[in-house]
Amino acid sequence: MIPLNGLTLRYVPTPQIEKTLHDLDMRVGGKIDFEAQIPSVDLQKKYLVNSLMEEAIASSQLEGAVTTRVVAKQMLRENRKPRNHSEQMILNNYITMMYIKDNTRPNQSLTLELIKEIHKKITKDTLENKVYEGAFRTDNEVKVFSRDDGQLIYEPPDYNSINKLLEQLCTFANTEPSGFYLHPIVKAIVLHYMIGYIHPFNDGNGRTARALFYWHLISQKYNWLEYVAVSTAIKNAPIKYMRAYLYSETDHNDITYFVKFNLRQLDIALKSFETYIKKTMSENKKIFETIKRNPNLNFRQADVIIDISKNERPITLNEMQERYNITYQTARTDLLGLAKLGYLHKHIRGKQYFFLLDKEKCMSAMDISDKKQIQLSDFGSKPNRPHKTIATSLTTKN
Question: How far is CA 309 from CA 60, 385, 392, in A?
């Protein structure tokens, strides 16, 4: 039993739940062994940024953002302004996830101000009225309807109880429950559930709930979660996600349903990430081999020439910045350095630098298998087919 201001949440730690929690802890040990497998800090940043992008996109799509993953990622990588409401939602989610990653302290206390701050960041310029950003609702007009048939499926508590309920929730988050131990992952899931149950805001409650789930676990030193896009797994089972909420609410707030669902999806997300790591190990090996043969390249530069040798897609300075979470000057130095070394040809048009890939130079920097892969799959398998030129652009700054 978890009492919250007269509301009692029932939770049954079943053997399956206990086993799943144990397995999660054993697999990650509080901190996933990712950094040991990827010794380059630059590559760690690249994979971390990619994961945060995936989480931001999936969490927004769960709340109705209508755009493809490819377009959304391109927007984030190029750091361009959102073109519509859906892209703004995704950008906000990404900024919020970065904010949580950079600002969360170990054992940090949850406060009403922090809940409001996260909501304000995650809903910027996406609500019908800007005054709703970071502000609790002041009426009972907010209700939850089914997207399929428009039927009312949930009516949140009276708005007058929001502050008291959230204060109780903060106390719950910041202290150990009396009489028993609650695993940090379960506590994070309870926070997720309670934000959905209280529905303290006019909109953006789901995105805020999932962000607070991340916040709590990172505050409890589960830093491996930064690399795991849980919302992607949830997005693949939206009906089960809604049912987990409804089953818990209609069965006298027995949150066991919700805990079991979220643990399953967390396990799926972690397995997906583990598979991703195995696949990238061969790519990392290519980077190390490239650097060994070309010691004048850093990890980012080696990674970039391998990537753009395989893909006929330009890479911009903004994408270079976002990909490795580096400064403008560092990104500029990397690209100009590649041009100086002959891997890219630099051309200037107005205030822009255009970099053309030197295929022969880049192919010679990689091993024979790389050459074959590039020639056959990326530039055409027919011997007489002309190779296409790959260009990247760089905008100069004063």
Answer: 32, 17, 12
